[in-house]
Amino acid sequence: MVTVLKSFDKWKQFLGERVNMAEHAGMSEETVAKLAYQIGEFLADKIDPENKEERILKDLWDAGDDQEQKVLARLMVKMVAKEA
């Protein structure tokens, strides 16, 4: 996973593939959004951003409250789902 984080495009592709897998496995949009939020929390707390796009996302995450972070997670899911 660490190499995936070095390129934002690779990260989006990786996330998009996982979102598609979750949807094909029958997970609801709400469940996928909750998982994206949990991943976002983990990344914000444990992983130092590897590129400028990840830095912007971390800064947005850190600036937001719980509700805004959930919106950001949902937007990321929507973004990668459209590209996949």
UniProtKB/TrEMBL annotation:
InterPro entries membership: DUF3243, Uncharacterised_YmfJ, YmfJ/YflH_sf
User: What is the name of this protein?
Assistant: DUF3243 domain-containing protein
What does the record give as the organism's lineage? Bacteria, Bacillati, Bacillota, Bacilli, Bacillales
